[in-house]
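Methods — Computational structure assignment.
A single polypeptide chain was analysed. Its primary sequence is given first, followed by the predicted tertiary structure written as structure tokens.
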Amino acid sequence: MKAAEGFPSGLCAQHRAIEALLRQLDGVRTRGGTSDEEDLRLLAALRRLLLPHLAAEEEHLYPLARRYLPVGRALADAAGCTHASIRRLLDRADDCRLSVTGRRRATAVLLLVLRTHLRGEEEQLFPALRARARPDELRRCERRLREPRAGSPGATGPAGPAVRGLPPGAGAITALRDRLTGHDSTGPHSP
């Protein structure tokens, strides 16, 4: 399994970039006197990093968890719900109608949920997949996570918009769940 030991290095690198933005948002909140434009700029940068990341996990990582982990189905379903919550929280924090105080409160909740989710993936999901999935499957998943996605205009990361035919920003799991239940979690602020 030596060749797969670094799995999922691409996702971990994205997690580091997301965490760096979260630290910047923490700094904005603790300084208190910064401008509303700085909040919005950082939230926009977070959106550009985060939404393709979540979509890539839903398309490649969580199907692998479903196949190889005993509780993979429940884990993937829970992650889909968490991803939908993160998208809604990001929309809320990025809502221009909020006051600076309201945006900071919404951002604080977003940061807490997002950090908890990232930590859970790195401390529990990734090691479990390394231990149970076949090395060739891990390498294939890693390659897919790194590939630019077809039909992703202007995509700068390893993933572009969700899946062709689905609403932008909606991951495959979330979109399927929403279609089956008649619920729309994409909201009016989807990118």
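Note: The helical segments are 9-31, 36-68, 72-93, 100-132, 135-146, 172-181.
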